[in-house]
Each structure stands twice: as structure tokens, then as C-alpha cells.
Amino acid sequence: MHPHNSTNLLNRTSPPNDSIVNNPITTSIGALILSLVFILGCPGNAFVIWSIVARARQHSVTTLLILNLAIADGSLMALTPFFIIYMVMKKWIFGNVMCKILYYLCLANMYASIQLIMLMSLYRLVAVLWPQRVGAITSQRKVMRALAVMWALVMLASIPALIFRSVENGVCDSHHKKDSDVVLQYTLELVLGFLIPYAVILVSYICILRRIRQTKFRRRIRSEKLILAIVLTFCLFWLPYHMVNIVQVIWASSPKGELKTLLGRIWNRSRAVVACIAFISSCVNPVLYFFAGKSYIRREGLAFMARLFDIAGVDSRKSRQNSQNSRDKDKDADAVTLKDKDQDSLTNSSFNVKPMKNGN
Asked: Can you provide one Gene Ontology molecular function annotated for this UniProt record (predicted)?
């Protein structure tokens, strides 16, 4: 390839001022956010893991999913010092291999977090709509298999970070040779990391709410509120990141011109900040658990969070029992109604005897 053509290709797939850390304002904001995330997230997720493993008396499906979520988030929190140094120095000093591995682990955490939240929603759906089958569908062995498959898919889906991430001119970023590579990478993140899981989550909660409205047991259980809060906060902190992904995909698909230049500046200047905001989702869950279980602090002390997870397991069983009881009552009511109708029909038939003719 001619050197001039190679330069044009590089310019076509990179916006002006292609370093995402060249803006001192965004890097300062990013370093501050990551520092706060590290201070809250590392001890918070470690405490959640300790509470479940060492203190929780009941390991329900919900508790097992929360444990995996805490492990994924805690692993990400352990990586934040590398990115804080990157933001402060505005230069990647850890080498090309670490650039690929660290961003691979970050992308894997994003996929793992949303997939685990999706599994929580699906479990709630099964527990509410098909309580009589939930024991067979969500046995411990099947849940462990589902988690193993999920982690395998997460590791597979994160491979683009190993392919496209590299260090050039002191910047650890995705460097694409073609616009189609940009579209492939960020469309994959958008579809697998946001659109599909959130569509499943949304449909699940719509079905759950419809079922709850149809039953007489409408008590809002603690674990239901907690999982819904996890879903909403994850969406809140990851939505800006995926919006920037959409902007970059449109930028890569656009012909050269003012629009392409404008879109390039938008994603280039905002990606560092939105990536740091996304990190907040990994430290906020322990805060949610704290507020959900604060009523147990006086009585349980440091075991208050373990008590919260025990209650989550009890709530799961109660929701299934309530749904089953509601269905049994509906069946009993239908049986009584049918019996009454049969009795009425017998009574009506005995009183509607036609008079005999000629004394016969």
C-alpha cells in the first residue's frame, strides 16, 4: 500500500486530536470519579462477598447471582488504580499487553454484570408466573451450569478488546484499520451489552407486574425492590457509554464532511468521562444493599447484610407460595362456581317438568 493511502486510511478511522486523554478537564473529572469509585467499591464489594460466603445461612438463587455480581464488580474495582494513573499522567505506561488485558477484563465485567441482572429478572419471572416449576428449573446444579455458560459467553464476547486495543503514541485505545471494524466492535457492545438484555429485563418485569395485579397478594417484597433498584442504577450509569457507542458507529458510517468531524469530536471528548461514569455501577450495588438492610444493623451488627440476603431467599419462597396459593384459591373458586352452576341446572331441570297429556 502506498504511504499516502495508508495515511488517509488512518485519518478516516480516527477523529481529529485522536487521543482520548488529551483534554485536561475530562481526564481530571475521570480521575476524580475513579478515585471515589475505588474508595467505595473495593471494600463494599469485598464486604458483600464476605457476607454471603461466611455469614449468610441460606444460599438462594438470588443470593448466588448477587455473589457473582459482587465478584465481577470487585474484580473491576481492583483495576481502577491503573486507569487513575492513566488519567493523571495522560499517558499509558503499562505496556501493550496490559492495555489489552485490562480493557478485556473491563468489557467482560460489563457483559457479566448485565447478564447477571438479566438472570435475576428471569428468575423472578419464573418464580412469579410458574411457581410450581421453579424448583425443577432453578435447581442448584442447573443454576451453576447456567452461570458457567454465561461466563464462557462473556469471555468470548469480550475478545474484540484483545483484537482492537493497543498502545499508539502513549494512548491505550481501540485502533481500527477500517470503519467496518468500528461498527462491528461498538454495535456488538450495544446489542449484547444493552439492547438484548434490557429488552429481556423489560419484558420480564412487565409480565411480573401484570401477574401481581391479577393476584390478591400484592405485597411488595424486599428482594423485588432491591433487584429493581439494581436494574435501574445499572441502566442509569451505562446509558451514556452506549450513547457514545451509537455516536461512534454513526461517525464511522458517515461520509467525510462536517457531520463526521462533529461526531468525531463528540465521542472523542466524551468517551473517557462516560467510561468512568460506567465504573460507578460497580460500586453502587453495595450502597443499595446497605440501605435495603439498614433496619438490621442494630440487631445483627456486621452480619446485617447476610441477614438481608437470608430475607431475600425467604421472600423468594414466599412470593412463590403466595402465587401458588392465589392460583389454588382461584381454582377452588372456579370449582365452587361450577358446582353451584351444576346444582342450579339440576334444580331448574326438576322444576321444569313438562305436564303429561291424557293422564300419562
From this structure: complement receptor activity
